[in-house]
Amino acid sequence: DAKTTQPPSMDCAEGRAANLPCNHSTISGNEYVYWYRQIHSQGPQYIIHGLKNNETNEMASLIITEDRKSSTLILPHATLRDTAVYYCIVRPGGSQGNLIFGKGTKLSVKP
Amino acid sequence: DAGVIQSPRHEVTEMGQEVTLRCKPISGHNSLFWYRQTMMRGLELLIYFNNNVPIDDSGMPEDRFSAKMPNASFSTLKIQPSEPRDSAVYFCASRPGRWLNTEAFFGQGTRLTVV
Fold it and tell me: Is the C or the N end of chain A the one with fewer CB within 10 Å?
């Protein structure tokens, strides 16, 4: 599976947008970008995924660059409950590809 | 649906004892995963089942670890004999389909402490 690179930590003010970057320069054409998060002491939670188009759901937006070598997860109005470790993962779609977690980004939302 | 259910939530055992962790996936999900999480190593994939068949067990650390999925609604992860370095949080996850591009749902985990 392709590797991803994320900053180890980020801070964000409550109510502001949180923009979490991810580099995946070796991504293959059939690999999707997934984002999960893990709030302290809980299991990881799916947020969003995409292939090449930008995606939006009730939790977040995913912006993927045209060359697909990087992406940004956007939490439009971060709350204290969004404090968590955010994982960016790439895996083949429509296959038995596994979810391999890296170290993620620890997002701290501050009042 | 109650989600992925793991039991027990917490387990404390003595070194050398057998430990069995249990997982009930979401009904209708075909894929099941076992992960281990520690501060040092993060989230590690141990084994992956599809339609009750182990597909990839390359993450299982050693022969002391074994996993089974006797039917679509139940899986176990067994450690025998347990060692202090097995102390970790063990997560089970399930996913609807092998050929669908879908997300995985995780349980709340079992915190294992081996003393």
Answer: C
